[in-house]
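Design request, tokens follow.
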């Protein structure tokens, strides 16, 4: 039974179809994992009371030969920033009233229900998803399944810890500056931030149009399957892309032969841990062996950290603008600091940052005329001690100091994925980032699948 908790969604669906096992058996295996591991990892802050009931309903549909949708009976967790009808969405904050009312599903939650997914519960997040690690005044510290003394990253850290530990094969995450890719790198999973607007989101993040919603999974095929569901249209998102009626699993195995790949070890300016850089650099040969044309080439832009901070910090200030003194006393001090800095950003400075953001987007559009993909490390470091915003020895001041590869592509709204590429001597996963031109989500998935085929994803022992 414990083995069922480690299967991918694709494997589960095949098992349901052939009646090798049932959604009820899978739900029991996953629930057992949650009972055993969640007290150690703190990945879930809410576990559904209806898991068994929902799994029984799914089993009945499979037995009658009428599965409800593409994910019928597959366990999925929802990050506690995403609205879920009937459950409080507390966003890691003591300032949110758990009494609600909680009467609406966000678009992704609605689509998952429509396709028969078994919703497991809500996963932990830093307060309002503001930073790249997962701890909050409400839920405490979330830990990494590879080493419980380390952080799983964030802000979708609970989601990634759950998937890596066998507490459900699929998770919904959000990514405003790397919050899907960061924890996937730290926990050895696959995650993709699709092109902005590909996955409908509502309500819009207080941090604005840098924020995406997407899948965290144990395989590229699972992510493509999940995109088939969560990328379905929803009229509440007026930023959404026109719906593209395609199966994202198509052409996954077309490989990377003759693709032009730019490999940038540091974007031309980032400081990277030597061991991390060595692991990622050693994995680049996989693309060459698969027939891609790889060239070391920086994309040629200066660090956009100031541009990102103007967007992110002003978003934090906007988020907290109406909070009372009593509520502010309950908030993560780091979020208060960021919001305080955001309050000092003038309208002219924010507009200037928006113009620079646009220029960066144009620059990358032009860059991709010559290169199909850009490959980088996902992060500058491996997982560090849990409960910290940045590594103790880094001299950093904010989470953006060790995430120089992720947030630039939130500014440009390009598809970007993290796929595991190796382990440190201490046994911690390291991720490789694949970035594609805007709207080339299928190409990023295809390249990630090719890499995964050569370097299969491993789970913690």
């Amino acid at each position: 039974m414990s083995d069922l908790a480690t299967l991918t969604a694709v494997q589960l669906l095949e098992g349901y179809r052939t009646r090798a096992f049932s959604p009820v058996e899978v739900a029991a295996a996953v629930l057992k994992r949650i009972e055993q591991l969640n007290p150690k990892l703190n990945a879930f802050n809410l576990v559904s009371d209806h898991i068994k009931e929902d799994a029984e309903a799914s089993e009945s549909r499979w037995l009658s030969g009428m599965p409800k949708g593409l994910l019928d009976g597959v366990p999925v967790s929802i990050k506690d920033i995403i609205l879920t009808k009937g459950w409080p969405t507390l966003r890691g904050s003591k300032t949110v009233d758990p009494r609600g009312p909680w009467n609406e599903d966000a678009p992704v939650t609605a689509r998952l229900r429509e396709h028969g997914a078994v919703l497991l519960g809500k996963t932990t997040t830093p307060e309002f998803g503001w930073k790249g690690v997962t701890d909050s005044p409400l839920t405490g510290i979330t830990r990494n399944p590879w080493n419980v003394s380390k952080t799983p990253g964030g802000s979708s850290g609970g989601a990634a810890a759950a998937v890596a530990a066998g507490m459900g094969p699929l998770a919904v995450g959000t990514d405003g500056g790397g919050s899907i890719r960061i924890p996937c790198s730290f926990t050895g999973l696959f995650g993709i931030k699709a092109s902005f607007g590909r996955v409908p989101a509502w309500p819009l993040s207080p941090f604005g149009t840098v924020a995406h919603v997407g899948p965290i999974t144990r395989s590229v095929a699972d992510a493509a399957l999940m995109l088939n569901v969560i990328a379905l249209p929803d009229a509440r998102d007026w930023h959404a892309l026109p719906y593209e009626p395609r199966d994202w699993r198509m052409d996954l195995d077309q490989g990377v032969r003759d693709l032009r790949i730019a490999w940038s070890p540091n974007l031309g300016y980032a400081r990277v841990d030597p061991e991390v850089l060595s692991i990622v650099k050693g994995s680049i040969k996989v693309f060459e062996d698969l027939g891609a044309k790889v060239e070391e080439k920086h994309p040629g832009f200066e660090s956009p950290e100031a541009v990102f901070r103007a967007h992110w910090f002003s978003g934090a200030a906007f988020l907290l603008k109406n909070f009372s003194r009593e509520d502010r006393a309950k908030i993560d001090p780091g979020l208060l600091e960021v919001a305080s800095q955001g309050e000092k950003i003038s309208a002219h400075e924010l507009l200037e940052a928006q113009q620079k953001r646009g220029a960066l987007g144009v620059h990358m559009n032009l860059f991709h005329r010559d290169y199909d993909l850009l490959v980088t490390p996902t992060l500058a470091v491996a997982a560090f001690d849990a409960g910290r915003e940045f590594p103790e020895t880094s001299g950093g001041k904010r989470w953006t100091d060790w995430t120089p590869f992720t947030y630039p592509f939130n500014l440009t709204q390009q598809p970007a994925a993290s796929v595991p590429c190796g382990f440190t001597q201490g046994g911690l996963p390291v991720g490789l980032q694949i970035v594609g031109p805007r709207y080339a989500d299928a190409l990023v998935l295809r390249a990630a699948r090719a890499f995964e085929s050569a370097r299969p994803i491993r789970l913690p022992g």
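Comment from the thread starter after seeing the answer: thanks! The CA atoms of residues 76 and 170 lie 5 Å apart.
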